[in-house]
Amino acid sequence: MQQSGVTDMAKRRKRKHSSRPIVSRYLEKVSADIFDMYKEKIISVIAGHQGIYALYNKNKLHNVGLASDLKNRIKQHLKDKHQDKWTHFSLYIIRREEHTKEVESLFLRIYRPKGNVVKGKLRRAINILPELKAQVKERSRQEIDDIFKGYKLFDTKKRKRRRKHKIKKFNSMRGYFPAGKVIYANYKGKEYKAWVFSNGRIKVDGEIFDSPSLAGLAVTKKKTMNGWRFWKYKDKTGDLVYIDTLRK
């Protein structure tokens, strides 16, 4: 009897700690004609649910989106600019509403549907590409050093000077804010904030950049710019001044 009680408790504990699915229900590759033929059935299945929908032109993905009311959203696309551009749809009902935007962004970034203008942002995620590049460069440098170990290819002092100059150019804000700092910008009436790490790199909207100009380009979407005359910081008096003044 006691053994049975222990077993039941273990089962309840296992159920308690098991992860719950993000997608609770779904429909895939259903004909658009279902809204004309079986409206009542569709309403009873998905009415009031939030989630992600995907529109297909036959087997080709056309558009991805999110909606708090999937039934009305699909009906809308039968009449708007997407009309006659899709023949089938899929629906994925998301259990928690706060997950829908991130799931939509994943769809957009992976599939890049032609019917979507936006790319999809992962606002709280960190792009690890700069870290990967740095590790690959370091690994390549070590492999080259191992291959030519014992050979003096060129003057060591010149090599150190070139390497130092390269690092300074790569991390152009290194040393200006040793403890980190928030910098600000105003573009087209909108305020932007970025965080400067002690190593000189700059974080904007979850992405990390190696110079103020690259960080500014991410905000303005321009082809070229001088980030030192775009970003500002608060001086000792609390006034916002261009970070370019730090180089004088």
Notes on the structure:
The chain contains eight helices and ten strands. By secondary structure, the protein is α+β, with helices and mostly antiparallel strands. The protein folds into two domains: 110 residues, GIY-YIG endonuclease (3-Layer(aba) Sandwich); 67 residues, no CATH class. The longest helix has 19 residues. About 4% of the residues have low confidence.
Strand order of the largest sheet: 1-4-2-3
> How far apart lie the N and C ends?
82 Å
Any idea of the CATH topology of the largest domain?
GIY-YIG endonuclease
Fraction of residues in helix = 25-40%
Percent strand equals: 15-25%
Q: How many helical stretches? A: 8
Rounded radius of gyration (Å): 27 Å
| Unreliable stretches | 162-171
Query: What is the global morphology?
Result: elongated
Can you name the CATH architecture of the largest domain? 3-Layer(aba) Sandwich
Mean pLDDT across all residues, rounded? 77
Per CATH, the class of the largest domain reads Alpha Beta
Structure classification: alpha+beta
What order do the helices and strands come in, and which of them pair?
Elements: H1 2-17, E1 23-31, H2 34-37, H3 39-46, E2 51-57, E3 60-67, H4 70-77, E4 88-94, H5 100-111, H6 129-147, H7 156-170, E5 181-187, E6 190-196, E7 202-204, E8 207-209, H8 212-220, E9 232-234, E10 240-242
Antiparallel strand pairs: 1-4, 2-3, 2-4, 5-6, 6-7, 7-8, 9-10
